[in-house]
Amino acid sequence: MPAGWATDGEAYRMTQTYQSRRIVIIGPGATGGAIAAELHDVGVEVLLVARGDEYEAINRHGLRYHTTDGVRELRIPVVDGPAGAELRPTDILLIATKAQDVEPALRAWAWQPVSHPDGSTTPAARTLPLLTIQNGLNTERVALRWFATVYAAAIGCPAGKEGPGEVLNFGAAARVLCWLGRYHGGSDAQRREIATLLRQAAPIRVQEVQDVVAWKAWKLGYNTVNALEPVFTASALRDELRQRLRREALDVFAAMGIRPVDPYHDSSSELDFALIAPQPVPGRTRAGNSTLQSFLRGATLESDYLNGEVVLLGRLHGVPTPLNAALQELVQQAAAESRAPGALGDDAIRELLDGAPVGQESA
């Protein structure tokens, strides 16, 4: 049995103990919605927290979940904010918003009362475990400003948004990969309990890890290239830029004393990305990575917390990151000007690689 996994007896005990636990998913977008759907399907109690059109759609017709098996409408309970949640001491909070939306969400939830059987209340920040699934390395540090117990996950999930209340998931053998750990390091019983809860859904594959920052650092380096699709047309030169963006991130991590764990090549990884290789979903097309999906929808971009995170950490540790800084600026410029994806070509990439300013559209 792989290290860190519960024995059959332990799994049974934890399942019995935590059948009454509820997972409160704040921000049921692509990944949060996929986790919610998979857990709801196997009987885990889930509460969704959504806003605006997202809340209205889920409240009206449920969460529409498109997978390789077809589409299902899942009647998952939903509220439109913290006040409607009526928090319990056995709840687990899962923050699934984009990284740029985390801080106001955490602030709103931190001091919400948790009601105990004896009639007393305590604040969520002191009482409940918080699980973060954002890309980048910023969310967990921010969360500790309020929440005493923080768990983090590096996530692989081939999901996307179709519209309010609709999630697409192109995974087949599995639909979510999760490397789960306590922030900042170590292990405890509650980490295993959260992992056991997630494992109730077979399409969610979980590996418990000691140093979750090392796994999240790899994912951040991997995600530095997300903004390439909205900005540059595909080419061999774009592939070279992709490698150099990641190299900058690795240089920053080395200066920080972080050794990223690459699940593609590190023998310590028990999960294989091939499990979530995208497969056809009937009647749907995969739009691309999460940044491109947001770009196409006109939503705010995560790039300030991907490329911008590398830039910030580079400045703090004295490591130049000119390519990530340039791409951070270029993708925001492309969004502000409502450009078509891939409007810049190889001439612009050459200018960028040579250190010249870039901004003109290709012919």
General description of the model:
- The chain is α/β, with parallel strands linked by helices.
- The protein has 2 domains: 204 residues, NAD(P)-binding Rossmann-like Domain (Rossmann fold, 3-Layer(aba) Sandwich); 111 residues, N-(1-d-carboxylethyl)-l-norvaline Dehydrogenase, domain 2.
- 39% of the residues lie in helices and 17% in strands.
- It has 14 helices and 14 strands.
- The chain has an 8-stranded mixed beta sheet with strand order 5-2-1-6-9-10-13-14, with helices on both faces.
- Helix 10 packs across helix 12.
- The longest helix has 21 residues.
- The N terminus and C terminus are likely disordered.
- It comes from Micromonospora zingiberis.
- InterPro entries: 6-PGluconate_DH-like_C_sf, 6PGD_dom2, Ketopantoate_reductase, KPA_reductase, KPR_N, NAD(P)-bd_dom_sf.
